[in-house]
Amino acid sequence: MTKSTNIVWHDSKVSKKNRQDLNKHKSAVLWFTGLSGSGKSTVSVELEKELHTMGIHTYRLDGDNVRHGLNNNLGFSPEDRTENIRRIGEVSKLMVDAGLFTLTAFISPYRADRDKVRAILDEGEFIEVYVKASVATCESRDPKGLYKKARAGEIKGFTGIDAPYEEPNEAEVVVDTDKLSLEESVQAIVTYLKEKGYLEK
Known about the structure:
CATH superfamily: P-loop containing nucleotide triphosphate hydrolases
Low-confidence stretches: none
Shape: globular
Order of helices and strands: HEHEHHEHEHHEH
Number of helices: 8
Number of domains: 1
Mean pLDDT: 92
CATH architecture: 3-Layer(aba) Sandwich
Number of strands: 5
Structural class: alpha/beta
Distance between the termini: 50 Å
């Protein structure tokens, strides 16, 4: 495929700072990562609801939802997983520029892919939230029946079974859903956002 070469970035007269000022809050990506069944989507849904009640402008990008549209041409090979995360990173960057708190819930198993997203955002705009849970816990939950299929050999390259998951080395927030309730997980993230000045105390 030949890439276009005659493209030029067009600046807007409304800046990210202007949008943040209008919203009366900062914007950033809350990047939820963890095994399937760890609670990424569940926690991100509840957090978005909590932020909305606080008057924060948000948008949530969920792994399955995005694969229905934007990334419906991608599979689950390492290459496709990398491209999936690259596209989501670019969309997230646009949403941060729009002044939104963007919540993304993707397994995103490779550190290098997550680090690339961090690198395209400004300092402090990428907040990695590691939703931690053991494989045993995730498998016991198995909301979509995927672990059962993976164990039966019906799904190949399943993260945590026959494909790797690389834990974050220095996530901004870690919520251990083996130990924390949904409410406690959400409050831990809200507390971080307040302590770091993203939200008013």
